[in-house]
Design brief:
The chain has 290 residues and is mainly beta. 14% of the residues lie in helices and 37% in strands. A 5-stranded mixed sheet has the order 1-2-7-6-5, sandwiched between helices. The termini are far apart.
Amino acid sequence: YDKFRNTELEKFFAKASHYDLVLTTSLWNYGDSQDMKGHISDWRAYLAGGGIIILTDMAYPPMCDWLSSLDPQLYIQYGEASLDLGNDAQLDLSHPSSFLRVPNSVGAFPYWAHFPRWGSGYYVWARTKGGTALGLYASLGKGILIVTTGFGFSSQILENLYTNALMLKSSIDICWRKAPQVMPPGAFEGEILIRNLGDEEVRLKLGFLLKDGDRTLTQTDIQELFLNPKEEKSIPVSFPCEKRGSFLLITQYKTEKMEQFQEVFHNLKVPPLVELNLNRTIFARSDRIG
């Protein structure tokens, strides 16, 4: 890899085609800020060629405001999450996207800002409990643009970002639209959303597994779907789940361009018949309680 300062954009774009990924650091265009609007054609060309751009720490005008010039549907509005949302500024993990699950499970990352509003060209991969966005992505040409208020990422989430960007370059995005996290014994009823992000028809193989640890409780037959360019489909999912416990629901999918199946996860709990919980918060003045 190579490092470039924000004042070395001409030097970078002279050899940009050599790189699969552009990853910005915290405050990447804050000091000695450069006008990114002057390089719109360069950024578009890089994305059109299949490049991946990950813009982090997106909470300052010189780093954010140029995106609407890249595409009017890619604007972002940014603000301080805790000031706007209070306790709802926390990361929402109720339905974590594959960005937070594949290949590593990520339960938190540093951020202070959020996106209260964003353009229709984006999809959300991380959000607050208040429903605002912390991570967005868009498909442009053959490339992927990822925008996040997060910064100082661990190696695990960086691996997740790159892995999911590569998966999205196959033009398919899959996420749960409706899926209970806690349910009584009976029939699971859910709905999964499948989007074709590309400009070509996609043939997709799709299946579901319900697992209790390493044991598979339910496995559906593999079905085939065809999606037109930019088409999205909602697929109902139903199967019995009479056993109590904590389970993992796995969605497996594969396009003709993929060598192996990819997976999307959802945690499902059927609680015990009687459950006792302590609803009192205890504050101790010592780190030892005798």
